[in-house]
Structures are given as structure tokens and as C-alpha cells.
Write a structure and sequence with these properties.
The chain is mainly alpha-helical and 274 residues long. It is built from twelve helices and no strands. Helix 1 runs parallel beside helix 11, helix 2 packs parallel to helix 12 and helix 7 packs antiparallel against helix 12.
């Protein structure tokens, strides 16, 4: 197998590990990288690969938050186990809207909106929204500072915002973080709930792609998939820790400006350099 393909898988894993958790749109980055750095594999495999390496990213959340998300931990009291189950039920409620809409209309939405102009527009629009909402919230105290204060109604509202991420370029983490902040959560709760929401959503999407692909991997394909997933896992751990440290002292405004810049770059790239 060509060593260059392994290097490409490593680079794609790094990009996935960073962009899946920061609210900057993995699609916005991948749409450019796919033009510059194409895997020498079948289109069918590449479509599956770009979704399934998210499993590596997801496992980082499971590892980092294993105790917090484990309702069977023997070290937890009855009250703590009950609180953990409540958190999972809230995640389940918030997952329903995107799961239903995605299952019914995912192919249609990709057919209509998976193009560079839609991605660029969504990058810029949500970049502006991050800046506007952070300025609006600057002197406001969040209503939800702990998961015990997060109601099922609020969780469902956040889940409705996650539906917006079905449009490429929006960013799943970006849509849910913005939605969570709009309904009154703190930045930390918004970010962590976004991480937890990713577990069922991305496991489901990855499983669906694997089933469609048929699990009929060649040796080189399996190596590429495992390398990309492992790198995504390792980089995701660093990205998540960075984001949580960053938002303790900063807001999301910088990510808003970054999104606007990336949107402009996407438009220029496809109009003048492609």
C-alpha cells in the first residue's frame, strides 16, 4: 500500500479531530481538503471513510467523560446514578429531531445543499451569529449552569437547533452551541451537552454508512480507516480539552471571525483557484 495514502489518512484524521468539536464546520474544511488531498480510493469508500472516522472522534468523548456518563459506576451514589440517567434521557430527547429529519431527508438535503456556495454561506452566516449572540449575552447571566438545571424542554429546544446542522457548512457543534446559549445555558454546559449529543448522532450515522458499505473492506481500505479513526481519536482529546479551557476565559467570538474568514476562502478557492 502506498505510504502517501497513510499520510493523507493521518491529515484527514487531524482535521476531523479538530473541526468536529470546535464550532468551525468540519464540512467547510473537508470540502477544500478533498480538492487538494484526494485519497486514491473509490468514491464509495471515501464517502464512507469521511463519516466513519467520526467514530474515533466520538470515542474521545466516551473516554474523557466515561465516569460522568456511566450510570452503572459503583463509585456513584443512588442520587448520582439517577442524575446520570436523567442526563442520558435529556440527550435522547434532544437527539430525536435531527434523527427523524436526517433519516427522512438526509439524501435530499445533501443533494440540494452539498455544494461549496451553501457551505460558504453557512460558514459566514453562523460566524456572524456567534459574534452577535456573544455581544448580546455579554452582560447576561446564564440560566443553566449545571446539568441538573437543564430541563427536558430546554434539551428538546437544543435538539431542534441541531437539525440546522443537516445543512452542510452549519457545523453540528456550532448549531447546538448557539442554540444552547440562546435558550440560556452557560458556555460550558452548551459545549459539554454538544459533546454528549454527538455520541448517538455520530454512532448512528457511522453505523448506517458501514451497513451501506457492506463491511467488505480490502486490506488497504481497512488500514486507512483504522489510521484515520485513531488519529481522529487522539486529536479529538486534545481539541476537547483545549475548547473547555478556552471558554473558561473567552467567548466564541473568535470562532465567529474564523468562520467568516473560512467562508470567504471557500468562495475564493472555488472561483479562482479550482
Amino acid at each position: 500500500m502506498d505510504f502517501i495514502e497513510i499520510i493523507k489518512a493521518i491529515i484527514l484524521g487531524i482535521i476531523e479531530g479538530i473541526t468536529e468539536w470546535l464550532p468551525i464546520s468540519s464540512t467547510g474544511h473537508m470540502i477544500i481538503v478533498d480538492e487538494l488531498l484526494q485519497l486514491n480510493m473509490s468514491e464509495r469508500f471515501k464517502e464512507m471513510f469521511l463519516v466513519v472516522i467520526q467514530l474515533g472522534a466520538i470515542m474521545s468523548v466516551v473516554v474523557l467523560y466515561f465516569n460522568k456518563l456511566n450510570p452503572f459506576s459503583p463509585s456513584k451514589s443512588y442520587r448520582e446514578k439517577r442524575a446520570t440517567w436523567n442526563l442520558w434521557f435529556k440527550v435522547a430527547v434532544a437527539t430525536i429531531p435531527a434523527a427523524v429529519i436526517g433519516f427522512l431527508f438526509d439524501d435530499l438535503l445533501n443533494e440540494l445543499f452539498y455544494n461549496y456556495m451553501t457551505v460558504a454561506i453557512m460558514l459566514i452566516v453562523y460566524g456572524i451569529l456567534f459574534i452577535v449572540i456573544e455581544n448580546r449575552n455579554r452582560y447576561k447571566r446564564p440560566l443553566v449552569n449545571d446539568f441538573s438545571e437543564l430541563t427536558y424542554r430546554t434539551a428538546l429546544a437544543i435538539g431542534l437547533f441541531q437539525v440546522l446542522a443537516l445543512i452542510p457548512g452549519t457545523s453540528r457543534s456550532g448549531a447546538t452551541i448557539l442554540g444552547a446559549m440562546l435558550v440560556g445555558t452557560s458556555r460550558n454546559i452548551a459545549a459539554e451537552f454538544t459533546f454528549f449529543l454527538a455520541i448517538p448522532v455520530m454512532f448512528g450515522a457511522s453505523l448506517l454508512k458501514l451497513v451501506k458499505f457492506g463491511l467488505a473492506f480490502t486490506g488497504p481500505e481497512l488500514v486507512i480507516l483504522l489510521v484515520g479513526s485513531l488519529v481522529a481519536f487522539l486529536v479529538s482529546i486534545v481539541a476537547i480539552k483545549f475548547l473547555l479551557r478556552y471558554i473558561k476565559r473567552n467567548d466564541f467570538t473568535a470562532f465567529g471571525y474564523y468562520r467568516i474568514l473560512l467562508g470567504i476562502i471557500v468562495i475564493l478557492f472555488f472561483n479562482f483557484f479550482n
